[in-house]
Amino acid sequence: NQTDDWWKKAVAYQIYPRSFYDSNNDGIGDLNGIREKLPYLKELGIDFIWLNPIYASPNVDNGYDISDYQAIHPDFGTMAEFEQLLAEAHALDIKIIMDLVVNHTSDQHPWFLEARQSKDNPYRDYYLWEDATADQLPNNWQSFFGGPTWTYDETTEQAYFHVFAKEQPDLNWKNPTMRAAIYKMIRWWLNLGIDGFRIDAISHIQKEPWDFEITDNQWAPFMNVSGIDDYMLELKAIFDEYDIVTVGEASGVSSEEAVAWTGNDGYVNMIFELEHCGRIGEPGQQKGSIPHLKDTLTRWQNSLADNGWNALYLENHDTPRSVSVYGDGSEKSAKALATLLLLMKGTPFIYQGQELGMINYPFRSIEEVDGKDTLYAYQALLEEQPELTSEEALTITMNWSRDHSRTPFQWNTEAFGGFSKTTPWLAVNPNFPIINAQYELQQPHSVVNFYKQLITLRKNTDTLIHGTYHLLLKNHPSIYAFTRQSDTETWLIITNLSTRSVTIDLSEELTLNDWQLILTNNQKLSLSHPLTLERFDALVYRKRH
Ligand code: TEU
Ligand code: CA
């Protein structure tokens, strides 16, 4: 029975291990640090954790460039420590899913070190090589991190293909021997007892022919290209042998196609779409557009209403902080966003620190930045628009930088926010004396306690898990309101995602009787026509039928 899937009732929590908790005070978060903090996650009400990559890696892309899939990076600990973390999490009834990065490896992976030796090396065909010269690459496709998708290799006078950095060569999925090696690795982790995978950049594993002509979308040659289904079905066959949850990061898969990806007999249980956060950082798009957010999330809710399942998120390790993008940095806006995230239909993913209302970092100079793509974009911007001052270029670049979400978790008021006793790898946000877990847990009206309430509410309410979603006030520029409905009850969720007070009229959509206010971040408003909402008000009502 589909409705019994455990992951539909679950609340997930994303941990960026490097920035969660540093147990041995070397400035880098680690596995023992996560293990020490499991009780915190239990108290929050978390059912499963997604761990960003913890494998051996030269860290060109913070662990997304893997040099050994079956080894733990010494920064994070040992395999024994990983197994201890898994065992203790399981004892608390918390599951753990791992990042599965199989679009590419590190250029330091033994397979690639072999492959680049010679054209007839047995590993050569694990990757994508074409004849080239230093000035004549096989085509003009551009990579996500900037620059060509091809890097010329002098030894063999060919170029290899990569959709991310040149240190992340793409695997050749057409090669069955390569696929078998990846599948063996996948089984190895699943046999160890992990609870599933978040599958990185999986929609890029299939590429168009090299002479494919790019028209409107420059990423089209490697975005969910036809033929990918064969590989997804092979992966699915493995996943189906285990009781696990699988979440594909699948940019380029449309909300219509997502039915095939996540519905009955879908390849994975759910996918992360990237459309709703896609516009942040475009020129003139410093703040997230609320109409765009509403439209996109609603399209996905509707598309997967009867078949398929949504993975819900407002931020992750690749985005700025949602409270800075869609909110005004205030606690109140953090709570309004939490209300949306936890009460839509799908499995919510809370990104570490989001439950505290952590906000963007006030970067003052490019020297403070770590993210490779951010540094590249900053340089490119200065080259394209030499009239910009470095401050202006920094401001524009930082609108969407990945570094905002990667600053260390703020545990308490001690030095470095209690993350570490040494200077951390990335600076702690100076607001840690007010935004931190310890302080907030003691304050009944804090952001973290609001999250706890929402998580409990959701987990105890079948209608909030399986009930239908219906958007209200579709064309309103700042009100995000919807209902969740089952045979027995209707829930009404209203948020005002704006710094202004707004008066709305729901008389065409709702009758007034029998609504009970269940949760709010501000005033105890009973439902009326018209209804005035203050800045970032969030209200949750229930009506039993
Ligand atoms: O991100 C992948 C990612 O963002 C692309 O798949 C996306 O489709 C593209 O940028 C177009 O919008 C994942 C990880 O989350 C990220 O941290 C890694 O850097 C990246 O993969 C490479 O492994
Ligand atoms: Ca450490």
UniProtKB/TrEMBL annotation:
Q: Does this UniProt record's set of keywords contain Repeat? A: no
The Swiss-Prot or TrEMBL record annotates one GO molecular function as: alpha-amylase activity
Do you know which SUPFAM superfamilies this protein is assigned to? (Trans)glycosidases, Glycosyl hydrolase domain
A Pfam family cross-referenced in the UniProt record is Alpha-amylase
Ranges for domain Glycosyl hydrolase family 13 catalytic come to 14-406
Against SMART domains, the record matches this protein to: Aamy
UniProt keyword list:
Glycosidase, Hydrolase
What is any one GO biological process for this UniProt entry?
oligosaccharide catabolic process
User: Can you tell which superkingdom this protein's organism belongs to?
Assistant: Bacteria
How far does the signal peptide extend, from start to end residue? none
Return the similarity comment: Belongs to the glycosyl hydrolase 13 family.
> What is this protein's name?
Alpha-glucosidase
